[in-house]
Amino acid sequence: MLTKEQIISDSKQYSLFTWVAQKNVNPIPIERAEGVYLYEVGGKKIIDFSSGLMSVNIGHGDQRVTDAVVEQMQKVSYVTPSCTTEIRAKLAKKLASICPGDLNKAFFTLCGASSIENAIKLARLYTGKHKIFGRYRGFHGNSSASMSVGGDPRKQYTDAQQSTNIFHLDDPYDFYGLSDQDEETRLKWSLDSVERIIRYEGGHTIAAFIFEGESGSSGCLHYPKGYLKGIKALCEKYEILFIADEVMSGFGRTGKWFGFEHSTIVPDMICMAKGLTSSYLPLGCLMVSDKIAAKFDDSPLWLGLTYNSHPVSLAASLAVVNIYESDNLIGNTIKMGAYMEKRINEMREKHPSIGDFRNKGLLGCLDVVKSKKPYQLMAPFNANAAEMEVMNKVGAKLRELGLYTFVRWGYIFIAPPLMINEEQIDEGLAIISQALSIADEYVI
Predict the structure, then answer these.
(1) Alpha-carbon distance 151 to 84, whole Å?
(2) Rounded to an integer, what distance in angstroms lies between the CA atom of residue 303 and that of residue 298?
(3) Among candidates 194, 154, 156, 155, which has minimal Cα distance to 174?
(4) Are residues 7 and 27 in contact, defined by beta-carbon separation less than 8 angstroms?
């Protein structure tokens, strides 16, 4: 067995790490994982407060998934997408049962980004229109079109031109003159601005809007009450498809099967991944309405992937979906989300650096602030290296104390596995409290 040092050295020498200058890589060598914990080579226990990439929803190391995968491998590990399997039939039917409305057709993909890519293609095939709208503060993956339709600044470095015929909306309420208005007026004006853009661009040219069911990596920025419902109504008025990106907010993460359900809407398509298999194996899915699917009853569906409906990944997914139900993980998410909010509110008395905590279920983001009046994050959106000095110290302290989560700009993400309990929440928040003591020193 390789030593801890050999694992790190060989990994750095022979593989590339994402989103980072390779000389700055300092990976954590993980030997095993169980429940809410990761175990470093050498035995150090680390509490995972972000469920991997906000995706290991059922927790680590659940052997029920392992058993389902082994059983499927012993039957058939791969067939071409033109064949079918029992597991394909079972999972597709199961997903149709948990999706609302007439979202009854599953097109299985490889990951979240490939679900978004195929949703864009399908929207254009179905409507005959070409423009796609996303949000500047949205994130949908790192393939060409999925990265372009979001507004994450990481895309600025990989493709200066980006994919064509993609446009962006600003966040609701995030333009001049709204701060002094009442809630009803702010919502109306925000939706009016979207309708103006539709008219400017021409509704007859717009194939689809893509929105996260609940915002994730941009900072868990909540939509105003009624906003998504208003957007869906505009889509219906101008015959524009509504695509819900549930890659991060789906499968119980927000206290419902899907984040958009908090807005009481039914989209035309749902993009899934992450919690679909709890990241035990790669898999994505694009759920499509019966209305859209019917168009391709008598004409070819010009979409295809070698690993479409991969039986081993499907087996992992069905086992995971069954675990959500058998273990009542969605109910636990609601309960633990409320407990998380209560405990963080209690921490405010001790830490002047705690700003907003935006949370839905167990999809949360804590603002670390240097000032509350005016409200100023410790590091701004798209912060440079110098602006990240304090937050880097906070992140380093979290790691030192044995907590794994994402620190991005002025945010600490808090999205633990859905099977977490109160004692484990207290354990993680105690570590965050120690790290916030660093930030407290810089509050002005």
Answers:
(1) 38
(2) 15
(3) 194
(4) no
Q: Does residue 177 register a pLDDT over 70? A: no
Residue with tokens 């990596």: 217
In angstroms, the CA 46 to CA 330 distance is 24
Other C-beta atoms within 10 Å of 232: how many? Answer: 22
Tokens of 98: 């948990």
Closest CA to 424 of 320, 304, 336, 333: 336
Q: Averaged over 72-91, what is the pLDDT?
A: 97
3 state SS of 317: helix
β-strand pairing of 375-377 with 131-135: unpaired
Please count the other Cβ atoms lying within 10 Å of the Cβ belonging to residue 178: 15
Pairing of strands 407-408, 403-404: unpaired
Tell me the H-state helices in 207-303.
227-237, 290-294
Parallel, antiparallel or unpaired: strands 411-414 and 363-372: antiparallel
Alpha helices in 78-217 (DSSP H): 86-98, 112-127, 144-149, 155-158, 183-201
Bond into 100 cis (ω within 30) = no
Q: Identify any residues that bridge with 337 across adjacent strands, giving them in sequence order.
A: none
Nearest CA among 36, 45, 62 for reference residue 418: 36
pLDDT tens profile 307-364: 999 999 999 999 999 999 999 999 999 999 999 999 999 999 999 999 999 999 999 9
Say if CB 201 and CB 129 are below 8 A apart.
no
The region that residue 9 occupies, defined by phi over 0 for left and psi between -120 and 50 for alpha, beta otherwise, is alpha
Task: Render the burial of 3-22: b for 16+ CB within 10 Å, e for the rest.
Answer: eeeebbeeeeeeeeeeeeee
Mean pLDDT of 286-305: 97
What is the distance between the alpha carbons of residues 165 and 256, in angstroms, rounded to a whole number?
33
Written as six digits, the tokens of 328 are: 């009542």
Rounded Cα distance, 400 and 26, in Å: 13
pLDDT tops 70 at residue 124: yes
Q: What is the Cα–Cα distance from 217 to 233, expressed in whole angstroms?
A: 26
pTM for this entry: 0.95
- Residue 117 CA to residue 284 CA, distance in Å, equals 11
Q: pLDDT at position 416, please?
A: 98
